[in-house]
Specification:
About 65% of the residues lie in helices and about 0% in strands. The protein has about 425 residues and is an all-alpha fold.
């Protein structure tokens, strides 16, 4: 019986991971885009209710993060009320943000509940790595438009981003099975970190080959924000992995500094070598990071920020809520600005602490594992990525990051039995 439950749990979580990475967003006219893993969370929630009502044994993960993210709903509601009192029109779609909280919390709890051993953590990291590698193969076919397959399906999975992948566009930007090259860039950088982490864990060399392929596909997205995310998260990952070696008490300070400097130089040399070897078709757009003054895309983003910044200044403390009834001239193109406008300084500070507090409390446990190092690296990289692009408001990205978070925080000691006691 226990083996059957274990198998079913592995099957469910593998299905969720594959759905996040391999299944495009389902779009129906007049409805928000839906994703397959969301249905899994909703069905799981109703099964949980039935089990509790029928007084069956239910075991769930218990830790700080689920409580904190559920509490974030309070700040969403307060900001919506503040927006309504300020004269903004509140619509039903504004409350869709609460559904996001439900899905994110559900994915985290499902993941952290189903994983009870260290081997389970590495097993599901392999599932993530394999799934992302499959999308990398798909992306390579997109880049070269093999057999003109792009024209058959790309417009359906990426209705706003398909033009660079059809009709022999000179600078294609691959999307894998996502709907945006910037979103997909984060998917493949997670693939890079997971394959690197697996190599460091089991020393199987094929993981290095997968990492190299994922890195090339990352360049095929031509995403500057994604590449910056990759640089930051890679540096953080290497630091976390080698920090015990670097700061070994037996070494003097000079040796520690030399080791750290050598690692940074080595990492930088790898990036420079990659840019020298790879064709300019893959690297020219990313090189614009070093010349933002002359980057039309970056300058346009700066101009677009002004509109949303104006709304933030009107209500800096509590924000005005999602207020999706407003017809904006330009997209925010800055998730930090979007959070400030929606939830104000108070809500945004809570948002930051929602991730920071659990890390601080469980630091000793989570920074010892490969999934923990990947999760921490992603959160640090996200700080910079969120300046031009969104993560929390991207169902695909946030779902995958929180699955990795669930893997990170999973611990048999954090499981508790949920059971209603009826009086006879």
């Amino acid at each position: 019986m226990e083996k059957s439950i274990k198998f079913n749990g592995r099957l469910l979580l593998s299905f969720i991971i594959a759905s996040i990475i391999l299944v495009p967003t389902i779009r129906l006219k007049g409805l928000p885009g839906m994703r397959l893993e969301q249905f899994a969370v909703v069905i799981g929630f109703f099964c949980l209710i039935v089990k509790v009502i029928t007084n069956k044994r239910v075991v769930l993960h218990k830790s700080l993060f689920p409580i904190l993210i559920i509490t974030f709903s309070f700040f969403i509601i307060i900001s919506i009320i503040n927006g309504a009192l300020s004269g903004y029109n509140v619509i039903i779609n504004d409350f869709f943000e609460l559904y996001k909280i439900f899905v994110y919390c559900g994915l985290f709890i499902i993941t952290s509940t189903l994983i009870t051993k260290q081997n389970d953590k590495m097993f599901f990291l392999k599932i993530i790595n394999t799934s992302i590698f499959v999308t990398s193969i798909v992306s390579i076919t997109q880049y070269f438009n093999i057999f003109s397959l792009n024209e058959l399906y790309i417009p359906y999975i990426a209705p706003t981003q398909y033009k660079t992948l059809i009709n022999d566009y000179p600078w294609p930007r691959v999307i894998g099975l996502s709907d945006n090259p910037n979103v997909y860039a984060v998917i493949v950088l997670i693939g890079c970190l997971s394959s690197l982490g697996l190599y460091l864990y089991n020393k199987q060399k094929y993981n290095l080959l997968i990492m190299i392929i994922n890195f090339i596909v990352l360049l095929m997205t031509r995403s500057r924000s994604g590449f910056l995310f990759f640089i930051v998260s890679s540096v953080v990952f290497f630091f976390l992995y080698y920090k015990d070696f670097i700061f070994n008490n037996k070494r003097n300070k000079l040796k520690k500094l030399f080791i750290m400097f050598s690692l940074l130089i080595g990492l930088l040399s790898i990036f420079i070598l990659a840019f020298l070897i790879l064709p300019k078709d893959l690297t020219w757009r990313i090189m614009e990071i070093f010349d933002l003054k002359n980057s039309n895309s970056w300058q346009l983003r700066l101009a677009n920020w002004q509109e949303n910044f104006g709304y933030f200044l009107q209500h800096p403390l509590l924000g005005i809520g999602p207020v999706k009834s407003i017809v904006y001239k330009n997209a925010a193109d800055n998730e930090w600005l979007l959070l400030l406008k929606r939830y104000g300084l108070i809500g945004t500070l809570y948002f930051i602490n929602m991730f920071a507090i659990p890390i601080i409390k469980y630091w000793r446990e989570i920074n010892k594992t490969i999934p923990g190092k990947i999760y921490l690296s992603l959160l640090v990289g996200a700080i910079f990525y969120m300046i031009p692009v969104a993560i929390f408001h991207s169902f695909q990205l946030m779902s995958l990051i929180l699955v990795i978070g669930g893997i990170t925080f999973a611990n048999p000691e954090s499981l508790y039995e949920l059971k209603l006691k009826y009086k006879s």
